[in-house]
Structure formats: structure tokens, C-alpha cells
Design goal:
This protein is of the alpha+beta class and about 130 residues long. It has 3 helices and 7 strands; from the N terminus they run βααββββββα. It has a 7-stranded antiparallel β-sheet with strand order 1-7-6-5-4-3-2, with helices on one face.
């Protein structure tokens, strides 16, 4: 078995800005506060949170959707990558980002749900609020 989670947040930033930042090493590092390296193309590899997260970009739909294979150093040895679908929707106050995370190793979903909120959404809200990108 595997876990599936969905988390979302509304961020005070334009959709195109947020989409582009997710795929940019410097911006991804800035909005999380931890080192990220991103090759921004289909088939490109990425790492985030100082190498804790790694994967490959599987699909890009400009400004709307990113699909990535995704894993952390906490995945059990031999387990397959999970799948992360990132959706970007325009709202009156910015962008709703929705993360649909599937194929997470059994029992780890709750931890990753908290991690997305604490280590992505909270710092992203602070970062975009401070630079007023909407």
C-alpha cells in the first residue's frame, strides 16, 4: 500500500511568478530557505531542502501544472519514487497552489502533509508577503 495526500494554500503571488519560481533554483531556494537545484525542463532532475528531496520533472503545462517524480532520503530502500502533481489556479488574492502527492510509502503521508505546510507553504507565504509580488 501507499499513501496519498492533497494539500493547498493561497499565496499572494501571480500564478506565472509562482510556477516559474518552482522551477528556478535561486527562487526555489529563496522561498523555502533551503538549497534547491532545478533543471527546468521535462526530464530535468531537481533537488530541494539541501538534497533531502530529489526527483525528475515528468510534465510541464506552462503556468498551470508541474508533474514530478519525488522522493526523500526517508523513503525505505528500494521503494519507488512518489508522484507529485502541482496545480496553480488564479484567485482574487493571488494563486491557489494544490499539491496532489501519491505513491508515498505506506505510513509516511501524514508526515509529508505536515512537511508541505511547515516547510513549503508557511515560508512561501512569508516570502511572497514580504516582496509583494501580486
Amino acid at each position: 500500500m501507499s499513501d496519498t495526500i492533497s494539500v493547498s494554500a493561497v499565496l499572494p503571488v501571480k500564478r506565472a511568478t509562482l510556477y516559474n519560481a518552482w522551477l528556478d533554483s535561486k527562487e526555489h531556494t529563496a522561498f523555502t530557505g533551503a538549497q534547491a537545484r532545478v533543471d527546468p525542463k521535462v526530464g530535468g532532475k531537481f533537488s530541494a531542502w539541501d538534497g533531502y528531496i530529489t526527483g525528475k520533472t515528468l510534465l510541464l503545462k506552462r503556468g498551470q501544472k508541474i508533474v514530478q517524480s519525488w522522493r526523500t532520503t526517508d523513503f525505505p530502500e528500494g521503494s519507488p519514487d512518489s508522484r507529485l502533481v502541482i496545480l496553480f489556479d488564479v484567485t482574487p488574492t493571488g494563486t491557489r497552489i494544490v499539491l496532489e502527492h501519491t505513491d508515498i510509502p505506506d505510513g509516511q503521508g501524514k508526515s509529508y502533509r505536515a512537511g508541505w505546510k511547515d516547510y513549503y507553504f508557511m515560508p512561501m507565504k512569508q516570502y511572497y508577503k514580504s516582496i509583494k509580488k501580486v
